[in-house]
């Protein structure tokens, strides 16, 4: 598990303008909470925070002056372009405490359904799990080799390391193999000539009366 170190500093609670000044200085406003202690407002290095996010770190060592403690990186808010972090939530936790976090999913293998003309669709990008703080995996990689066309991988089928349980619903779909649209059209059954000659019934339209033979004069 990656544990990133982030340098920070104490800050006074401020409004929008104060937070903007911090961001111009390369800092990200953050708040520390949890364990029935009062929230603590800090500012952390944007560079350090971005490195931690790139490494998929869930736990960070926050270093303020000579003090260094571990926190769970619970949430990060981004700007309107979803590029730069503008706020972070850090949660106080005990190393032996079980926590609930979301971990990215990365599918492994190539479904045999692809060789039958199917396409792999990843429905879920991350899975919610519960485990001890220092046992949080960076990423979970379920295998999809066994999936054929129309098959589905559910959350309950994802193998997890020991000591970890899923919080996401067991029936949630992680991935599936679907038929390509073009193949569906090609595979449409041919209609027999007799069926083609017959006029289909149209709901809501009055049926055309049968023609009567002309009477002989």
Count of helical regions: 4
Strand order of the largest sheet: 1-3-2-6-5-4
What count of structural domains? 2
CATH C-level name of the largest domain: Mainly Beta
List the helices and strands and how they pair.
Layout: E1 3-10, H1 16-24, E2 27-34, E3 37-45, H2 46-54, E4 59-64, E5 67-78, E6 85-91, E7 98-104, E8 118-122, E9 126-132, E10 152-154, E11 165-166, E12 173-179, H3 181-186, H4 193-197
Parallel strand pairs: 1-4, 2-6
Antiparallel strand pairs: 1-3, 2-3, 4-5, 5-6, 7-9, 8-12, 9-11, 10-12
How would you characterize the overall build of this protein?
- Helices cover 13% and strands 37% of the residues.
- It has two domains: 3-93, Ribosomal Protein L25, Chain P; 103-186, Ribosomal protein L25, C-terminal domain (RNA Polymerase Alpha Subunit, Chain A, domain 2, Beta Complex), CATH 2.170.120.20.
- The model is unreliable at 190-217 (pLDDT under 50).
- The chain is mainly beta.
- The protein contains four helices and twelve strands.
- The chain starts with a strand and ends in a 20-residue tail after the last helix.
- The strands form three sheets. Strands 1-3-2-6-5-4 form a six-stranded mixed β-barrel. It has a three-stranded antiparallel sheet with strand order 7-9-11, with no helix packed on it.
């Amino acid at each position: 598990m990656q544990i990133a170190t982030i340098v920070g500093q104490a800050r006074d609670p401020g409004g929008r303008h104060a937070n903007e000044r911090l961001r111009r200085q390369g800092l990200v406003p953050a708040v520390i909470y949890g364990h029935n202690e009062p929230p603590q407002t800090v500012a952390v290095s944007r560079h350090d925070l971005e490195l931690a996010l790139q490494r998929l770190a869930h736990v960070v060592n926050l270093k303020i002056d000579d003090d260094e403690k571990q926190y769970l990186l619970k949430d990060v808010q981004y700007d309107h372009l979803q590029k730069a972090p503008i706020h972070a939530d850090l949660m106080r936790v005990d190393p032996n405490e079980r926590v609930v976090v979301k971990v990215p999913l990365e599918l492994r293998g190539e479904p045999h359904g692809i060789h039958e003309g199917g396409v792999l669709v990843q429905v879920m990008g991350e899975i919610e799990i519960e485990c001890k703080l220092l046992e949080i995996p960076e990423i979970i990689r379920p295998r999809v080799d066994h999936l054929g066309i129309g098959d589905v991988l559910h959350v309950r089928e994802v193998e997890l390391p020991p000591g970890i349980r899923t919080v996401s619903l067991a029936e949630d779909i992680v991935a599936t193999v679907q038929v390509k649209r073009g193949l569906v059209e090609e595979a449409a059954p041919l209609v027999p000539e007799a069926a083609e000659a017959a006029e289909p019934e149209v709901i809501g339209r009055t049926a055309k009366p049968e023609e009567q033979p002309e009477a002989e004069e």
